[in-house]
Amino acid sequence: NQIFSLDGCLACRHLHGHQGKVKLFLGANELQKGMVTDFKHTNIFKKWLDDVMDHKFIIDINDPLIKSMCCEMVFEDGLDDAFSHLTHDKEYGFWTFKEGYVEEVLATSDFRHCSVDEKQAIMEKYEGMVLVNFIPTSENLCRWWYDVANKMLNDLGIDVVAVEYWETPKSHCRYQPE
Predict the structure, then answer these.
(1) Beta-strand runs (E) in 7-106
(2) What is the pTM assigned to this prediction?
């Protein structure tokens, strides 16, 4: 709402990134050996965050800007053809471009005019994209990470009670289902 914005422009509408902090809250009805779990068990979730999210650009697969963001991949067959080269991680709900696909596209004659540096920059752009099926607000990311952490840790008998995400040192959100 513009009433609450000091300058009339809501900054979150612009493309931007964050260096954030994710905090898991764990729970148990009974303690095992005096604890909910050994916190090293949460390393599986941290590793996933590091491998999938760290230094990545997260974008909604339905975003109206996706076609322009993926302009190098859009040819006569359109965006659907480019998206047919995505790997869908159904368990955790995200897509990335298949390994080797971007190199294959960059090897075509359409890119013969590009320098090695330009091709490298294009490659890094696509390697750095994570596509999701929701608007990646901090709140939606927090909810998604809750679902992912719960799937990962439930097999160990660990109940994820809530997830908090610090977008900045002064702004954070929490997702905790009822």
Answers:
(1) 21-27, 57-60, 86-89, 94-97
(2) 0.84
The kind and range of the H/E element at 162 are strand 159-168
For 142-172, what is each residue's pLDDT tens digit? 999 999 999 999 888 889 999 999 988 888 9
CA distance 119 to 112: 10
* Residue with token string 């090897």: 107
Between CA 177 and CA 165 the distance in angstroms is 15
Residues in the chain: 178
Half-sphere CA count of 80, side-chain side, radius 13 A = 1
Cα gap 142→21, rounded to integer Å: 11
Backbone angles phi, psi at 30, to 5 degrees: -140, 145
Gap between the Cα atoms of 126 and 58, Å rounded:
11
Tokens of 29: 């009805």
